Amino acid sequence: IAGITQAPTSQILAAGRRMTLRCTQDMRHNAMYWYRQDLGLGLRLIHYSNTAGTTGKGEVPDGYSVSRANTDDFPLTLASAVPSQTSVYFCASSVLGSGNEQFFGPGTRLTVL
Amino acid sequence: RKEVEQDPGPFNVPEGATVAFNCTYSNSASQSFFWYRQDCRKEPKLLMSVYSSGNEDGRFTAQLNRASQYISLLIRDSKLSDSATYLCVVPSGGSYIPTFGRGTSLIVHP
Q: Are strands B33-38 and B84-91 parallel, antiparallel or unpaired?
């Protein structure tokens, strides 16, 4: 692995199903983030984690949960998907601190029908 | 006032033109600022950081105006390959959580 990866690349999901989006980084960054990007709305923060074992809510956390069991992995779970969760999801990581660059994964394109 | 605001554009300019974007922010305590570039259907990537003294990298110049609470990005001698969406990022005051603007779309045409 080089950098930050996400899986799956894309997914079509029936409403009501549970889905976990995976994110893994090998840069030993302590901070990780999940964003969703919708046309006209830009990148909106869903959840973040400043270090393994801690998580926090972003701007649009409802309907999503995260866990941070170790430094490398930061999965995002949709417990019961709804059509409004159709979006492109980006995971990012950085060294903790306001002056540090975020590195983004390639994104997961999710469609909920 | 939103935390971070950008003119969505699109800015449609010919090759060789000079174009500038502004990004206003509401939290005067913010200390670090960034410009990211995002190509269509791709992930955002850091273009440049914005320092108090300004920052120049080739054809790109970023500046900070603390008094008026905005950052700017100037692109000189625009290339076709500069066509993208440019996102400004301002960490929320008192935290390390970055807030993205909605982006400004640039289209450079022949």
A: antiparallel
Mapping DSSP onto H, E and C, the string for A45-111 reads EEEEECCCCCCEECCCCCCEEECCCCCCECCEEECCCCHHHCEEEEEEEECCCCCCCCEECCCEEEE
pLDDT at A111: 97
Tell me the pLDDT tens digit for each residue of B17-42.
999 999 999 887 777 899 999 999 89
Give the N- to C-terminal CA distance of chain A in Å, as an integer: 32
Q: Which pLDDT score is estimated for A37? A: 96
Q: Would the CB atoms of B43 and A105 count as touching at under 8 Å?
A: yes
* Beta strands, E only, B1-110: 4-6, 11-14, 19-25, 33-38, 45-50, 55-57, 60-65, 70-75, 84-91, 98-100, 104-109
Which of B27, B37, B43 is best to mutate for the A interface (most A CBs within 10 A)?
A: B43
